[in-house]
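New to this. Please check this protein:
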Amino acid sequence: MTRIKICGITNIEDALVAINLEVDALGFVFYPKSPRYIEPEKVKEIRPNVPLFTLCIGVFVNEEKDRVLEIAKQCNLDALQFHGNESPEYCSHFFGYKVIKSFPLKTKEDLKTIEPYPVQAILVDAFDPVRIGGTGKKVDWELAREAKSYGPLILAGGLNEDNIEEAIRVVNPYGVDISSGIEKSPGIKDHKKMSRFVMKVREIDRLLMIKPKFCLGR
């Protein structure tokens, strides 16, 4: 089954809709420059509503390690996703948490940067020289498929209800990560789009008879 992560959750209403759709993970962006930034105090309020087997993932960009751990504890996070220039050594310091590292892919040369990272999953996204994630740009799916050789792969970058079937057929990822493709505006989800996207992924899984993969959850 393809895991689904709804990223850029900024409010309880969107979180509850995602939970009712039985998605596998919610992503909370703790990068103040992001239009999808959410304060840790808000996530702390949302957290009690999240069921046991739905992961809460914190997204960080070049944050101090102590601050990451402080937020992770405060918000009772299950996993940490690093979306900046974090080194392999940096990513190895978060004992007790699942770690996801994001890699923007432009060429095959970019694949070589993945190998040294001691992480539980990799997330591939489209490259943008200015914005970090949530750009709506489509990643090269052939490169994404090659990246699977480095571990469980989460596909992001320009996904929506119209292209998700092709994306899964081409890449067959461990999971998919969507944010801007189901929004009314940055940080505000369109619940109908969210529902259609989730239903489409589940339908594709049934059609392709995708077998369960390595589980990132606890």
Q: What stands out?
A: Residues 3-208 form a domain with the TIM Barrel fold (CATH 3.20.20.70). The chain has one domain: 3-208. The longest helix spans residues 191-208.
